[in-house]
Design a protein that fits this description.
The complex is a heterodimer of chains A (about 220) and B (about 260). Chain A contains eight helices and no strands. By secondary structure, chain A is mainly α. With about 260 residues, chain B is of the alpha/beta class. Helix content of chain B is about 40%, strand content about 25%. The longest helix of chain B has 16 residues, at about 185-200. Classes of the chains: A mainly alpha (about 220), B alpha/beta (about 260). Chains A and B meet through helix 5 and helix 6 of A and helix 3, strand 6, helix 4 and helix 6 of B. The complex binds adenosine-5'-triphosphate and magnesium ion.
């Protein structure tokens, strides 16, 4: 007898391929979203340190709105709200847009902090050698800022990977949704959800190890 | 006498490599530099001393326009560098600067620190720039440390890399802003020795320092600043022995 709440090893082995597929979709959605998020976030982050009031104002508004609302609501607005103004999107693109726009705001703040974390003396030393503002940014500030924010970006990736489970509400068949579908057909909740958790961990643990490693490497270069 | 032979009088207008005329600098309402006039000959070593907040750093930073002068003119070899039309990046290549906090690029090795600007800005070929960088690092006594990152070097070593980095652009004048102040006492000498050698090689130098021994030994001219003005200037030995202005007297009595 297999009841709810009992771990069923046979079932577990049978659903492994489905879970692996779900994990792959989750990883794919997250990777695409973080890529777009990086582009959005870099531009918005630069605007956040800009002296130009318009750039600063728009980017600040964007960051505040995204950080002040739940991701679930953002997903629902983009998927169900946009058709109301004539934009119809399939679930996957809508999901990627929602995750990208959301992570873009968090990455913008990471980028801003990264640029500001490079001591002023670095810019002055570069300028004193005759580098222009843009050359100094490119050769001196950006490489150091990027190095400094690598762990934070890794953490953002992990957070986004977990948050992508919210996409199951707009019927994207990612890891969490796969788990729910299996529960619905097998009436065993314990085994599939444990499997789902396991697959999330298999993705997040290596990532967080990578973050720890990159943090250690930063320590090597840091000035005393 | 020796000084006279080193710098024979030059009757041409470009007698001075650096000429500062009526320089003022304000931060908001605070006047930090007031009517600074200073001319520096080629090969001359000018040492600037003065209490904290007297405007020494601001003066140096105006010379390469890390600070914008409020009024006055600064000529480098006859070119007015305060003119908005000059390419300040070109001018800065001719003026080396060494900072109290070293400011080495932390993501680059010693060698890369020294090579970067010549390669990226002067467009010097990589292997040529590398050869030159290694030569400079050997000259400051770091031939065996060239592949280390700043964090792996002592303060004294970092500061010597910073000097090599500035020299790699082949500047005509070098500015030193309290370059030994952040160093442990036992590391001061190795940096001062490099600067002494540089002075002997004929480099034009403006040195802000608290090292009175260095001022006495290497300085051709000593300038005492207080509250944004040059209070007294002359031969270092003369000023140390017989300061004329009471403020100089007071400052030296505390520091010597
Ligand atoms: N960016 C700035 N904004 C406002 N005030 C400044 C700025 N830089 C310097 N000052 C002020 O200008 C005055 C002169 O500073 P400066 O750093 O040139 O002095 P200093 O002689 O180099 O002193 P120290 O020996 O402490 O280095 C100080 O009162 C300082 O507070
Ligand atoms: Mg100073």
């Amino acid at each position: 007898m297999v009841g709810v709440g009992q771990f069923d090893i046979d079932l577990f082995l049978r659903i492994l391929p489905d879970l692996a597929f779900g994990a792959f979709v989750t990883l794919e959605l997250t990777s695409l979203s973080i890529l777009f998020g990086l582009i959005i976030g870099s531009i918005a982050g630069l605007a956040r340190v800009s002296k130009n009031r318009i750039f600063f104002g728009i980017s600040t508004l964007y960051v505040e709105i995204i950080r002040g609302t739940p991701l679930l609501v953002q997903i629902l607005i983009i998927y169900f709200g946009l058709p109301a103004i004539g934009i119809n999107l399939r679930p996957e693109p809508a999901g990627i847009i929602a995750l990208s726009v959301c992570s873009g705001a968090y990455i913008a703040e990471i980028v801003r902090a990264g640029i500001q974390s490079v001591p002023l003396g670095q810019m002055e030393a570069a300028r004193s050698l005759g580098m222009s503002y843009l050359q100094s940014m490119r050769y001196i500030i950006f490489p150091q800022a990027f190095r400094n924010i690598l762990p934070a970006l890794g953490n953002e990736f992990i957070a986004l990977l977990k948050d992508s489970s919210l996409l199951s509400v707009i019927s994207i068949v990612e890891l969490t949704r796969v788990g729910r579908q299996i529960v619905n057909t097998t009436f065993n909740a314990w085994t599939p959800f444990l499997g789902v958790a396991l697959f999330y961990l298999m993705m997040t643990i290596p990532l967080s190890r990578l973050v720890t490693y990159s943090q250690k490497r930063i320590g090597t270069y840091e000035m005393k | 006498m020796i000084k006279f032979i080193k710098h024979p009088p030059n009757l041409f207008p470009m007698k001075y490599l650096l000429e500062i005329q009526g320089l003022y600098k304000k931060f908001g309402d605070i006047e930090v530099l007031k009517d600074i006039n200073l001319s520096v000959e080629r090969g001359e070593v000018v040492v600037i001393i003065g209490p904290s907040g007297s405007g020494k750093s601001t003066l140096l930073r105006c010379i390469n326009r890390l600070e914008e002068p409020t009024a006055g003119k600064i000529f480098l070899d006859g070119i007015d560098i305060t003119d908005k039309k000059v390419d300040i990046n070109k001018i800065r290549q001719r003026i080396g600067m060494v900072f109290q906090q070293f400011n080495l690029f932390t993501h680059l090795t010693a060698l890369q620190n020294v090579m970067l600007a010549p390669v990226k800005i002067k467009k010097i070929k990589k292997d040529e720039a590398e050869r030159n960088a290694i030569k400079l690092l050997e000259k400051v006594g770091l031939g065996d440390q060239i592949h280390k990152y700043p964090a792996q070097l002592s303060g004294g070593q970092q500061q010597r890399v910073a000097i090599a980095r500035a020299l790699a652009m082949n500047p005509e004048v070098m500015l030193f802003d309290e370059v030994t102040s952040a160093l442990d006492p036992e590391l001061v000498k190795e940096v001062l020795d490099v600067m002494k050698q540089l002075a002997r090689d004929g480099m034009t130098m403006i040195v802000v320092t608290h090292e009175m021994g260095f001022a006495r030994e290497v300085g051709d001219r000593l300038i005492f600043m207080d509250e944004g003005v040059i209070v007294e200037e002359g031969e270092p030995i003369e000023i140390f022995r017989n300061p004329k202005n009471p403020r100089t007297k007071k400052f030296l009595s505390v520091i010597l």
